[in-house]
Design brief:
single chain, 387 residues, alpha/beta, seven-stranded mixed sheet, 14 helices, 15 strands
Amino acid sequence: MPSAETNTIVTVPEAYTVRLVERPYPCVKPGSVLVKTEIAAVCVDDRMYTDHVHEWFDSPLYGMGHEGVGTVLEAPESRIYRPGDRVLISHGAYCGRCYACQNGLSQAHCASLSGGVRAGSSTTVPEFFVEGLAPVERKNDSQSGWAAFGQYRLADEGICTLLPDDLDFRYAIAAECSIGMAYCAQEFMEVAAGDRVLLVGTGQRQFSLSHVIVGLFRGAQMIVAADDDFHFETVRKIGEARGGTPDLHVVDMRDRSWTDRVFELTDGIGPDKIADFTSREEILNIEIDLVRHDGVLYIQENLRNPDRNLRVDPYVSIAEKNLRITGTIDSRRKDRPGIIRMLRNREVQQMWDVVVTHEFPMSEVEAALKVSATQQCGKILLYPHRN
């Protein structure tokens, strides 16, 4: 065990203000593990920096970040984990009793996190998060900071997954809010080899870019409707990293005839499945027109669009077309084995290397959040123990 007496964490006390703060070194009890964070990843955390908008899992003074991989330091009385084990840590909690925990769903929906607010709400934060008393810290009598943007992290055993020795942390970090989330989404969509899948818009880029990787891995034909130069060029590079592929096409949404091109690429039938990253009503309705009969419209996210609505004629748009509309913004625990197998694939790793556009030591987290806020980036990785 290291001789550390404190845990350095990232806080954002107000917009455009980042501070590294020393919290007490974590205390750990049976049922939890203490992990040295090797890599953390930036997700929607830049919104805390720019607008001081808190996701439900954030606390501006006691913990930020939810994606992490690391090395187990302590695991009291555990039958699963030992010091030295390499683990993936999901966001959320694990009570082991609620529907989400017992059915291998996302730990983001564990009943112990509800705190009287709707899971996923960014408008209200449970009081225990405001005070820094996350469930895992309350159980362990700890006040360490608990989140991913810290040198050390407490986690319930139930939200950890053992990593194989041959999977580098750099690729394992993709298993949550990027490739992991895209994998879960394409399970919902039932994407199969030969399917023609249209991805529309940017959203949180690590999600939309990761869908390209997952779709190609599953043998689908991917059509990407890109809405800016960065997205267009990055998707092209993903294809090059795979050695080139005839199953990847990029359509420029700035061209008014972009939908005509989609029909051309799908033999006039329309895509089998569409994943939306715009949350724009007019685009969603275009997608409903584009998707083929008996198709699937999957809605991922766009947190930067505050006006998220979908108004459709339920008979003409859904029933008459046998259209299935679905969506999620999480990765599920039961998908972990498949996600990890995919991340061990060399082609997937080469494509992921394109999606990782920036890497910073945690001491430069403010620079990382500034880059993330520009949206001219892919995935950003943070290294808490690098200078």
